[in-house]
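Entry type: protein chain
Record version: 2
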Amino acid sequence: MPTVSDVAKYILEARGETSALKLQKLLYYAQAWTLAWDDAPLFKEKIEAWANGPVIPALYQKHKGRFSLKPSDIAGDSSKITAAQQANIDNVLSYYGDKTPQWLSDLTHMEAPWLETRAEANLKDGERGNAAIPLERIQNYYANL
């Protein structure tokens, strides 16, 4: 199974320089739709319901303090991604790739996985928190769209 860094590297190679916020949201949607389409996770790292939407802390720690990222900024290996996984990621990039980081963040704020996780953790709008979004919740939500 690829790591989140491998998937991030693939996305950055496909898109070029991308904001850190947008990369986090594209990774979330790549994970979400892979769960829905393939009934399996794309990467194992957890996703948390942060104030600005879903974030993968393991990757955040690698780009913390940076506004935008280039492929050379992430030490991942995109060759670890299978052809089927690449197709899923490419479909996500085709739909979400031209959206702004704020649009993507706003979209996640309207969707049940982030909303329900934050509600269960009693987190108010804008309040910091690190509640993990269960993969089953993500999978069930997107599989039913």
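Comment: The longest strand covers residues 48-50.
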